[in-house]
Amino acid sequence: MTVGAARVHVAARAPLFTPARCTLLALCVGVACIGTALQAQATRALKPPARASWPSGSVRIAELPWTEAQRLLDTATVVVIPIGAEAKEHGPHLPLNNDWLLAEYFATRVAAATQVVLYPTVNYHFYPSFVEYPGSTSLQLGTARDVIVDIVRSIARHGPRRFYILNTGVSTLRALGPSRDSLLASGIVMQYTNILEVGKAAEDRVRQQTGGTHADELETSMMLYMYPGVVHMAKAVDDYHPGAGGLTRDSLAAVREGKVWSRSGTYGNATLATRSKGRVLVEAQVKGMVAEIAQLRKVAVPDSNERRPP
Question: Does the predicted TM-score (pTM) go above 0.85?
Answer without folding.
Answer: no
